[in-house]
Structure prediction request, 422 residues.
Amino acid sequence: MRKKNLSKILILGAIAILGIIVLQLYWLAMTWNIKNHEFYERVNISLRIVAEKMADKTDVVLPKKDLIKQLSSNAFLVNYNDVIVPDILEDLLIREMDRVVPNFKFEYAVYDCHSNDLKYGNCCMQDGLDKENLFKKLPDLDEYTYYFIVRFPDKNLFLLYNLKLFVLLGLFAIIVVFAYLYAIKSIYRQRKLSELQKDFVDNMTHEFKTPLTSIKLASEVIGNNDIVNSDPRLKKYSSIITQQSEKLTSHIERLLDLIRSDEKFKLKQEEIDLVETVNNVIAGMEHYLNHQNVELKFTYPEKKVLIIADKYHFSNVLYNIIENGVKYNTKDNKKININIEKNENKCKLSIEDNGIGIAKENLNNIFKKFFRVQSGDIHDVKGFGLGLYYVKNIINLHNWTISVRSKEDSGTTFIININKTK
Prediction:
């Protein structure tokens, strides 16, 4: 993925997550205010009912205004304006509060402004709490003579419990943020490692190609020497040096192609003759195939099969598949069958071998980068697991499809479906 595209995706993702968090915080604040107001209304109504019932029992006339005053977010004052009977008050408070909010703890205190002292107090819905611990700092309100104060110490917890869904969503959002940050860190670290890998391979291939060019030139000079040509042994050694240097150069070029195939480079597509291209690849591998004692059979239509393809990369695809068919074959009579079938404007190219085959559980992984089957005689074959990864990338860039049929000890068949033929 390009750096610019990656940055865009990360920025859009960050904006989306930030938007979700802001909306959740807004909804949480709005819901908190609504619940807080609802709590205030319920408590206000309940305390008014308690005051009215207590006044009916004691024949007290309640003040027409300022009956209830909110002292803080969780404390309310009720201006009774007469002597309060604690037992009646507590009984009414417990009944009314249990009706409005069941099992909700509250504290109350009765205050006499003449003595400026706490006359009576208790904490309901909780055992073992001394009344001396209640309302250590009472408000000094000169305008009231007799009143009682009710406080709800667990009010915020009560509201949070009612907002548990929003709290859970908030926690989930926090987890998503941390997961997103971790993903960003992992992506950038992976990208950095990938760039380091590419730089390393690029530098190494450059360092290899320079001495290889010198070796190749030197071997050609030696090969053209009359003294060397007159000695069969020296001529053979000179030929081996030339062949191996060319082979190593070819491997380096293919490695560079693999690196470039990770990026969406543009193919140099042109109209080519499919049969002729396959024959050229076979001719280029003739020495290798003869040395490996391979019997190769090529079947193709009589008419030309013209396709649009990148000749260089397509040839490398054929080379990789044919070479794999030879490498992963332990039989003395190695066989490679190449067949082209043309149907209207499409054709099917199949490459079949009689090698060791691939187990069913590994078929879905053979095109993955660096994947190598770890069983059988495959340990004896040198490689990095990049060949078929390169093949798959090139096929995808051509908008073709490739499939594989294989069975252990029964060989493997690669099928390339090519469209837009003539």
